[in-house]
Specification:
Number of strands: 10
Distance between the termini: 58 Å
Strand content: 15-25%
CATH class: Alpha Beta
Low-confidence stretches: 249-254
Shape: globular
Structural class: alpha/beta
Helix content: 25-40%
Number of helices: 10
Largest sheet: 6 strands, mixed
Radius of gyration: 19 Å
Length: 258
């Protein structure tokens, strides 16, 4: 039986009132996979993520989840559909006036069909999944950067979504902490049967978690395939990214013109 995508992006054109940032891109994400979106600074990764979670409307094109085009929905329809979607922000985006447990409980209280008395138990369960089961009483200011990201993960899966989006999950962390977060992503995906879209530029994390890689460059898709295919491709920009080769310096450019 042919697999059907859970997310379908078609001819997506997006921008912010000035130059177009995304230039008619199309791709699919399939149930249970981790799609990692990569590319250099300013290539359109963050713009794509904001559109995929309904935070912005495109200039044209469509984004469908479970066959429903979110770009054509009104606020109530979009809000209802996005109850099945989790989002983990780059810095955790925790509310500093609330405890860790209260931060994780918030989506359950607002969106989840959960008996109020069960929320503390469920909060502890979600925190335990990210290795912070006994930290519900702590305040965000008491947490390290890695711990904040883990709490952000726990909040993203609070209402048992089927799709989770991650924005730079390991940015700014040391290699050991980043590897731990990669393992959590893989474990949570398997345990909860999740589909994930991860925006990152961290090479080790890409190699650790990606089922498929989507690379953007100047608002266009220049590569889509497995991590093995990405490592072997002859596409120059993809090879440059994975080999960590910088662009030519000013001196080199001057020499090449002589």
């Amino acid at each position: 039986m042919e697999r059907r995508p859970i997310i379908e992006v078609r001819d997506l054109v997006a921008g912010y009132g000035g130059p177009v940032v995304l230039k008619g891109i199309s791709f699919d994400v399939y149930p249970g996979e981790i799609m990692v979106v990569i590319g250099g600074s300013g290539c359109g990764k963050s713009t794509l993520l904001r559109h995929m979670v309904g935070m912005q409307r495109p200039i044209s094109g469509s984004i469908s989840c479970w066959g429903e085009d979110i770009t054509r929905m009104d606020e109530d329809e979009l809000d209802h559909l996005l109850h099945r979607v989790g989002l983990s922000f780059q810095e955790g985006a925790l509310f500093n006036s609330m405890t860790v447990g209260e931060n994780v409980a918030l989506p359950m209280e607002e969106y989840g069909d959960v008996v109020k008395e069960l929320i503390p138990v469920l909060v502890k369960m979600k925190l335990s999944l990210v290795g912070l089961g006994d930290c519900g009483y702590m305040m965000p200011e008491e947490l390290s950067g890695g711990m904040k990201k883990r709490v952000g993960f726990a909040r993203a899966i609070a209402v048992d979504p089927k799709i989770v989006y991650f924005d730079e999950p390991s940015a700014g962390l040391d290699p050991i902490m980043a590897a731990g977060l990669d393992n959590i992503i893989l474990e949570i995906r398997k345990l909860m049967d999740l589909t994930m879209v991860v925006v990152t530029h961290e090479l080790e994390s890409i190699r650790a978690v990606a089922d498929r890689v989507l690379m953007l460059d100047q608002g266009e898709i220049i590569f889509s395939g497995t991590i093995d295919e990405a490592e072997r491709t002859d596409q120059p920009r993809v090879r440059q990214f994975f080999e960590r080769r910088p662009d030519k310096t000013i001196g080199e450019l001057k020499k090449s013109k002589r």
